[in-house]
Specification:
336 residues; two-stranded antiparallel sheet; 14 helices; 6 strands; binds iron/sulfur cluster
């Protein structure tokens, strides 16, 4: 559960570090991209940073980055295609049955975990990354929150590009999951507003939907997969049965554990024992009790690395116990 104080206001998508790198001259990362050093990095010849690793990593993202249908708020099937399907009635067997069907379909399309919450408008962005106010269509009441597992062997190669490829692949599989799941909900006669990391904060929604708890590293920790997940969500007007948020004492563990903070190469994660309402940079949202992660330091490391980083994920004991261990990139390739 989240503790929110009176200083809270909806997060502005323009403050996401990726948006600030493009448009905020005050941001230390302004004008920098994760890929900017890749040509030089490849020349260094390090394991996990070869041309093949770059190709694997960049291609893994391509569906998420190019398939707009993943983020549709309306029907994907062309308007004049299969008009007979538009004459089907809505499926309305009651909330329990509807919830069971939605969860089974989510797993069918690739979700590893799925939970339901009511939409808490505090978690909806005030504006998107370009500065357009976010308006959720009328009638949407519930969030179907889905988490998708990341490969335990590949993620163990962090921060090499083989690990970044695993992250990209999870996002591209999320694009597939979102498109199929959104269309499935519409086929039953309901609204489906599909979202990756856009439009609303995924982690609070996942916490509300009972998928896990927030860790010191700013990520979701699930009982089944630790932090080895990526999250997406669909808002709908379906009347569904909500899951209960978990309270397994993870935040108490985080107070003394600090393994993620010790593992982070750039000290982006707080070592303080107690969480705070105070942000450490503009990309944090004030007014929420947590250990704020310095997204500016984190992103600067990604730019230096040439790919994203999962070191705080793999350092977490809740992830380690799901089978993740430090792996050399070449050893990972040999398992494929
Ligand atoms: S992703 Fe890497 S750089 Fe960023 S906070 Fe985690 S360990 Fe640190
Ligand atoms: S590594 Fe330890 S402190 Fe960090 S999120 Fe996991 S349990 Fe919490």
């Amino acid at each position: 559960m989240y503790t929110v104080n009176s200083g809270y206001s909806q997060f502005d998508g323009r403050n996401i570090i990726f948006a600030r790198a493009l448009s905020d001259p005050q941001c230390p990362c302004y004008g920098h991209s994760v890929e900017e050093h890749l040509p030089d990095i490849v020349k260094e010849g390090k394991s996990g940073y070869s041309l093949i690793d770059v190709a694997l990593y960049e291609a893994a993202w391509v569906v998420y980055e190019t398939y707009g249908g993943a983020f549709s708020w309306g029907r994907l099937r062309p308007l004049d295609a299969k008009p007979e399907l538009d004459r089907l009635e809505s499926y309305n067997p009651g909330p329990e049955q509807l919830t069971a069907v939605v969860k089974k379909a989510a797993r069918f399309y690739g979700a590893s975990l799925v939970g339901i919450s009511r939409i808490d408008s505090r978690w909806v962005y005030s504006h998107d990354r370009e500065g357009t106010p976010v308006e959720i269509p009328e009638g949407a009441t519930h969030a179907v929150v889905m988490a998708l597992e990341m490969d335990p062997r590949g993620i163990g190669t962090t921060p090499a590009l083989t690990s970044s490829a695993v992250v990209g692949l999870a996002y591209s599989r999320i694009a597939f999951l979102l498109a199929c799941m959104g269309e499935f909900i519409r086929n039953l006669g309901y609204k489906a507003i599909q979202m990756g990391n856009d439009t609303a904060l995924s982690i609070p929604l996942a916490v509300d939907a009972g998928l896990g708890e927030l860790g010191r590293h700013g990520l979701l920790i699930t009982p089944q997969l630790g932090s080895r997940v990526r999250i997406c969500k669909i808002f709908t007007d379906m009347e569904l049965v909500c899951d209960n948020p978990l309270d397994t004492g993870i935040q108490q563990v985080c107070k003394t554990c600090r393994k993620c903070a010790e593992a982070c190469e750039v000290d982006a994660i707080s070592f303080e024992e107690e969480p705070t309402f105070e942000p450490v940079c503009k990309s944090n949202n004030p007014g929420v009790l947590k250990w704020p992660v310095n997204a500016e330091k984190c992103y600067a490391f990604w730019c230096e690395n040439g790919g994203d980083c999962a070191t705080c994920i793999t350092a977490c004991p809740f992830t380690v116990r799901t089978g993740v261990k430090e792996t050399a990139p070449d050893d990972f390739w040999n398992t494929l």
